[in-house]
Amino acid sequence: MKIITFFYHLLWGDLITLPLPGGSSVGLSLLVLILIPAGIYFTIRTRFLPFRLFPEMLKIATEKKNLSEKNSISGVQALIISTATRVGMGNLVGVVAAISAGGAGAVFWMWVTALLGSSTAFAEATLAQLYKEKDPLYGGFRGGPAYYIHHLFIKKDSKSRRSVIAALFAVSGLICWCGISQVIGNSVSSAFDNAFHIPPLFTTIILVLVAAVIVLRKNATVKVLDVIVPIMASLYFLFTIFIIVKNAGQLPSVFQRIFEEAFGLRQAVAGGFGAVLMNGAKRGLFSNEAGSGSAPCAAAAADISHPAKEGLLQAFGVFIDTIVICSCSAMIMLLAPAELTAGLAGMDLLQTAMKYHLGEFGVIFIAVILWLFSFSTFIGILFYARPNVAYLFGDNWLSQTLYKILALIMLFIGGLAAYTFVWDLGDIGVGLMTVFNMIALIPLSTQAIESLKDYEAKRKQNPSAHI
Fold it and tell me: Which of 16, 40, 314, 350 has the most crowded Cβ, counting Cβ within 10 A?
């Protein structure tokens, strides 16, 4: 616990404190100091890519598959895998945590981090494509930050098999995903207990057994996520639209509350502006994962015609995650009466809000959708783990299977006990991943920018061609 607390405060605690007019202050953590400036840097370097190339992102997302390697996945399938983990725990549990601790204003800062994070997501996904390699175990391709970090620090003629920084990234990722596995188990068992009064033990056993059947098979991951992710995201979005339309008269006051609390004009919690900004930024970064190096593990597996195309798809994934789905979760909570949700936190807050909007069906719906979100997240993070386990332990089925079993054990433990430090463990893992990823991402980013210029030049020469 002491080690976890130390690293948590190192990464997410107030590294520096800036005074603000009126006597208040804002504390900035190491991760915010790394990711927000990096997001601004990449946004400028890509000439405001999230806004300028949004139509191109939509166009690429609707292209037909054209695979060159057996057992490889398409760019859109890689997007679905990364979306499975983005549109998962961060969107439900993470948004609830942000609003519980930082008030409505945290939503605004989640939006800001998403817009900045889109450009960062482009850079890391494009690099993952540039440095991908063939996967001898699963077929197709593999890669991610561990692989482009390796190429930055280890020369081609070197006898070293691993880079220290790349290995540290891989270890941090495996720690992070074990922590998330516990959060998944705990959130699902709690939601089903609230909705159906099913004992956590039964819920957890079923969750682990179903997960084991899928993740212990060689290539079931992508097929399952291809079905689950579009269905769950569409259902959640449609029900949220229904709630928004039903409460349309409250929208102006909700947006007013978001913007007022975002800048501390109304003190949502003790600490005012600083708490609002930090909770929104932290949960926004955790939710969209831009810069953490998670999504590039899926992006590298894409069999796509140009590296920049996968970068644009992953930038689009950040938009889907935070601007669309996170906003859905926020609206469900903020359109419920404040006196009804006062003092509530976690899944109790979200389920109470849904009960207000949709009655008992709302509680059941959230429990089921959380199960789908969590389940897809678990499958997605084990896909992320593949190339990192291979980087650390080589190409063998033993190490791959042992990590999957470890993750299943963590899933089981999390379902039975509400460990208060599991969020901190996930935050530490994603924080360390981000630090190690950024060490390579900044110096290598020129290659991603050049790839974007090449793609845009080819698109300009022949707009109708399949590049």
Answer: 314
Is-contact 18 437, C-beta < 8 A? Answer: no
State pLDDT tens for residues 118-162: 899 999 999 999 999 998 888 889 999 999 999 998 877 666 788
pLDDT at residue 268, rounded to an integer: 42
Measured CA to CA in angstroms, residue 313 lies from 143, 185, 206 at distances of 17, 30, 34
Instruction: State how far the Cα of 133 lies from the Cα of 428, in Å rounded to an integer.
Output: 29
User: How far, rounded to the nearest angstrom, does the alpha carbon of residue 466 sit from its chain's CA centroid?
Assistant: 30
Residues with Cβ within 8 Å of residue 85, at least 6 apart in sequence: 289, 294, 295, 376, 377, 380, 381, 384
Q: Are 51 and 119 in contact (CB under 8 A)?
A: no
Residue with tokens 């596995």: 181
* DSSP, residue by residue, 79-119: HHHHHHHHTTHIIIIIHHHHHHHH-THHHHHHHHHHHHHHH
Distances (CA, A) of 368 to 209, 355, 363, 418: 17, 14, 9, 20
> What pLDDT, on a 0 to 100 scale, did the predictor assign at position 186?
77
Q: Hey, what's the torsion of the CAs at 58, 32, 422, 330, to 10 degrees?
A: -50
Q: Which helix (H) or strand (E) holds 19?
A: strand 16-19
The pTM for the full model equals 0.86
Output DSSP code: residue 406.
H
Tell me the C-alpha to C-alpha distance, in Å, between residue 94 and each of 10, 325, 342, 441. 21, 12, 18, 26
Is 299:142 a contact under the CB 8 Å cutoff?
Answer: no
Work out the number of other CB atoms within 10 angstroms of the CB of residue 69: 12
Contact 237, 328 (CB under 8 A): yes
H/E stretch holding 17? strand 16-19
Q: What is the pLDDT of residues 377-412, one digit of tens each?
A: 888 888 889 999 999 998 898 999 999 999 898 888
Q: pLDDT tens digits for 183-218?
A: 788 777 877 777 778 888 888 888 888 888 888 876
- H/E stretch holding 424: helix 422-461
Cβ atoms of residues 382 and 221 within 8 Å:
yes
Q: Which two tokens stand for residue 406?
A: 């470890």
